[in-house]
Amino acid sequence: MKRFEKITRFDWMTFILVGILSVVTVTVALAEDEPAGTQPAETQPAETQPDQDEAPATAPQEPDDDQADSDQPQADAPQSASQDAPDYALLLDPSHESWARQAPDTFNVKFTTTQGDVVIQVTRAWAPLGADRFYNLVDHGFYDGCKFFRVIGGFMAQFGINGNPEVSAIWRDQRINDDPNTQSNTRGRITFAMGGPNTRTSQLFITFGDNSFLDNQGFSPFGEVIQGMEVIDKLYAHYGEGAPRGRGPEQGRVQQEGNPYLEAEFPNLDSIITARVVE
Does residue 235 lie within any of the structural domains? Predict the structure, then answer.
């Protein structure tokens, strides 16, 4: 009996020791599997963006899926043969005296786009402050490379956020006062987008149809397409309304990330290659 008891105690102690060693081994193994210093990432609240601070009222209808011929990326844009590149030093200095020039009474602007050429005629008397701002932005090359980031069939095509986030950050705060509305937002008219009274900066839209319901909301047309409206009709509209209301680009990210964001996530968007004042 004594021999049996000794064996039992020995076995019991052995079992306890083996159990302790097993727990220690497992604990060490788990600690090594997780990288040192790794902590669950805190979810940062997304930066609040206006919805959007510069936009005409929501379109009365969304584009049909059959408006777009395909979801394939656009062909490489033709290169401008003769125009100078924008002067980024001036684009980053809106206080320079060259930005305060008064526009001619009438002038034409040619957009060379990925779908073809468009000519816009501006009549300063329609909306003088808007015409002056547009004239100077075009003359300084601001719209070169800008994407038509919000195109809604039957409603309008919106553009005017510079592809360089540094430039767009500067101009987002360069607001001008409203002009009295003297013209209606009918087909082919070009108008500054805005987010309320006296908030116009650089964003614009061209109307596809009859948007006269915008007339009493402060959207004052200053010009109209006189050549190439069929080009505007062909702009890629399949993405529809911008996020979060639709699946198109989020304007806050366009402002912060510029063209790299649009080219990576919305490759089919059409672009303005150059915009120039012409005779």
Answer: yes
